[in-house]
Write a structure and sequence with these properties.
16 strands
Length: 406
Amino acid sequence: MNYNHVFEKAIERLHAEGRYRVFIDILRNKGQYPNARCFAGHNGPKPITVWCSNDYLAMGQHPDVITAMEEALHDVGAGSGGTRNIGGNTHYHVQLEAELADLHGKEAALLFTSGYISNEATLATLGKILPGCIIFSDELNHASMIAGIRNSGCEKRVWRHNDLAHLEELLAAEDVDAPKLIAFESVYSMDGDVAPIAAICDLADKYGALTYCDEVHAVGMYGPRGGGITDRDDVADRVTIIEGTLAKAIGVMGGYIAADQVIVDVIRSYAPGFIFTTSLSPVLVAGALASVRHLKGSSIERDGQQAAAAMLKGLMRDAGLPVMASETHIVPLMVGDPVRAKRISDILLAEYGVYVQPINFPTVPRGTERLRFTPGPSHSEAMMRELVAALVEIWGRLEMPIAKAA
């Protein structure tokens, strides 16, 4: 068999569909986010502005975070030395888990190397531990949640996005004594909408189900202490398991779950994705710890980010650009074609020094390709106006429709 031919054809299909992904070659400028340097296609670095980072609050640039990481590096060295079971457990890990449990009002928390792994490992393990479990999954759940549910071997029921009537219909159709788990996200990051968490918990109570809420795009962003939508809406105590990331608003790397002690102990003791993986570097854990502690006591970053998102949405709407309705910090701009989305992204980078990646299938459904902007507290009004002017010019150049002002 000509293996290379098969591999080459697979890549050719992506090119033909306009969704071959190209990774940008950049370095961020410490302390000057969203400014960065782009190396691709230039004789030396070219200044650019980053508009698509998930480091929503620029905490990856915060002096407290950087100082904590530097101190940890010089105190204990670079790597963790192994899995948590064999040499990779440090006092930093213990401290951060306690801080995260407190953030969500839970008895315990458990760190993973990424948010993907925390979802996949936890959901897969829960399904295997609970005999005959049925998992009810929102249709827009992240790929990591889908992978975990698939690997659990459980029966799965997919409910229409945020459709409570459909969820109840599916719950009511099952054996009343069957173990049930409802899995959903708080903020859906491609559309920017929010789950009705309290109502989902009402259904879970009614039908005897556990609840699993992915807060990765909300941790640090919402609530008086940054605990997410469950914190903002005062429903964290009603959610069985809260999952989050340290790589977005927290600004570092890693994932975690927070829940009752016995549930955390089960995942710690049974999940292969936890047991057999080298633990997070204590340097990263120290940085995340400093970030979580800072955001528990500071709303400045959250307030600045929300104001920036509202301003950019308003400027785009006023300019007639097809900005999608979003009730959160996500600012999606609909394109509807993968080739055009990539073309717009390329022009923005090459001609305007603006970095925003196109979002294509399978991240979003075909025909809904978009540009996804994540303005933060450091994006100025001048930057936003320059961005919108550039987009209007490109929309006109590519003969794409712009709505007329009312």
